[in-house]
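INTERNAL AUDIT FORM
Audit reference: QA-55
Scope: verify that the stored structure record matches its stored sequence.
Auditor: D.O.
Record contents follow.
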Amino acid sequence: MSSAQQPRQRLLYIHARSPNVFSDILGFTAVEPIEGCRPEITAEEQDWPYNSVHEAIVDGWQVIQFPHLQAPFDDKDLDVIGYEFILQKIEVV
């Protein structure tokens, strides 16, 4: 198996409306294990492949970090967008 066919880690950062995995997504960034990958972060709503973290889990993604729940906050007052989940999928890319 050549190095191009080795399983690699894909990352998915999902910002959700609440810490519940069924909550609506507010932001979405995929990081692919491809040289030169530069994810674009934009405030514009994109055509995301999932509507919730749960949908990503059903598609084979694994949650590797749940949101840090230190205290409730209103994300309109802070420079934070929702609750961040980090997911991974190991695939041949």
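Auditor finding: record pair retrieved intact. The first strand starts at residue 7 and ends at 16.
Action required: none
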